[in-house]
Design a protein that fits this description.
Helix content is 36%, strand content 20%. It is α+β, with helices and mostly antiparallel strands. It has three domains: 19-26 and 96-149 and 160-242, Reverse transcriptase/Diguanylate cyclase domain (Alpha-Beta Plaits), CATH 3.30.70; 30-94, MutS, DNA mismatch repair protein, domain I; 259-367, Dna Ligase, domain 1 (2-Layer Sandwich). The strands form four sheets. It has a five-stranded mixed β-sheet with strand order 5-6-1-7-8. A four-stranded antiparallel β-sheet has the order 9-13-11-12, covered by helices on one side.
């Protein structure tokens, strides 16, 4: 049966007699662990990577900080309230990227089929692997050991026959753990899980499921496909199949990003267009730097604005041709920004992104004059 036959997400057939061997590697408190590795004075202490100022946000928290309830994406003031001894450290993304490259180099020793999800996690398909190893569990053990030796950091790993279960498994024995979910144990394992543990079920969806009487995988499995589609739309198909331990999504190497963007929360609200333009310019430049030396260009520019009352709006424009230069990008972004003024409330956050990404055809004559 093809993947589309079962889950609607498919392209390739899966042989049920020969399950895939998939590993999900997830670094433990990655940013915070790098900071503790590089600064011995931080080890064993509650550390948050992010801004300590009033409107700062926690990008990552050490396990010592998590013991107090500090979590990523939490406002810094809330984190400080939960943990008065919390130590804030400014992020060093260049260092994190370097460590991530080391880790991906280790992955590449075993398989070319690597799907990074972020700097600190990735899926690996080791059904066929460069070592000729028959045991995915053994490969996961070797990878974790090599990561520790090369970077001084710990990683957790999940091993299973599909992506959904591999990701759940990697979180099951964190930190510095390894867990395996075999085809024989998969369906029963899913039935016993609380739905909040399911990847793809966030807090709002979990609350909605709970209101509908769905609290565990077993409860979810008891629902009909029609019921789940009625209450969760297209996601209903996904929930229907994962409740049965079914996920035929392949690990996608060299996955093309759908968009790239950046945003900044300001210490003081912005009320004038001139002030907002001044603040937006470095954000636009940051996004452009991320793509200017690569082959990918985008056609859709999206502006994000969050006001002091936390109301959020977006404005977008899709250009006839890919955005070809920083000046071009800035012109479109400033034009979108002009549409939101005058404002009744101060602006506390601005963001901009490029989407409709595709590789630029540089051999075409019309592209020869692009600024790159």
């Amino acid at each position: 049966m093809s993947e589309r036959d079962q889950s609607g997400t498919s392209e390739t057939a899966v042989d049920p007699a020969r399950p895939r061997k998939i590993i999900h590697i997830d670094m433990d408190a990655f940013y915070a662990s790098v900071e503790q590795r590089d600064n011995p004075e931080l080890r064993g202490k509650p550390v948050a990577v992010g801004g300590a100022r009033e409107r700062g946000v926690v990008a990552a928290a050490s396990y010592e900080a998590r013991a107090f309830g500090v979590r990523s994406a939490m406002p810094s003031v809330t984190a400080r309230r939960k943990c008065p001894e919390l130590i804030f450290v400014k992020p060093r993304f260049d260092v994190y990227r370097q460590a991530s490259l080391q880790i991906r180099g280790i992955f590449a020793e075993y398989t070319p089929i690597i799907e990074p999800l972020a700097l600190d996690e990735a899926y690996l398909d080791v059904t066929e692997n460069l070592k000729g190893a028959s045991s995915a569990t053994r490969i996961a053990e070797e990878i974790r050991a090599k990561i520790g030796a090369a970077t001084g950091l710990t990683a957790s790993a999940g091993v299973s026959y599909n992506k959904f279960l591999a990701k759940i498994a990697s979180d099951y024995k964190k930190p510095d753990g390894l867990f395996v979910i075999t085809p024989k144990m998969g369906p029963a394992f899913v039935e016993a899980l609380e739905v909040g543990r399911f990847h793809g079920v966030g807090p709002a969806t979990r609350e909605k499921m709970n209101r509908l009487g769905v609290e565990t995988g077993r409860d979810l499995k008891a629902q009909t496909l029609a019921f789940l589609q009625q209450h969760f739309g297209k996601a209903g198909d996904y929930y229907y199949w994962i409740a049965r331990g079914v996920d035929h999504r392949p690990v996608r190497a060299n996955r093309i990003r759908k968009s790239i963007g950046a945003e900044i929360t300001f210490f003081e609200d912005l009320f004038t267009c001139d002030a907002a333009r001044t603040a937006l310019a470095p954000i636009v430049a940051k996004v452009w730097r991320a793509i200017e030396n690569g082959p990918v260009r985008g056609r859709t520019v999206t502006l994000k604005v969050k006001y002091s009352d936390f109301r959020q709006i977006t404005r977008a424009r899709t250009c006839d041709a890919p955005v070809s230069s920083l000046q071009n990008f800035e012109d479109v972004a400033f034009s979108l920004l002009g549409q939101v003024f005058p404002v009744e409330k101060g602006i506390r956050l601005l963001g901009v992104s490029l989407s409709s990404l595709a590789e630029e055809r540089r051999e075409a004559p019309s592209q020869l004059t692009l600024e790159i």
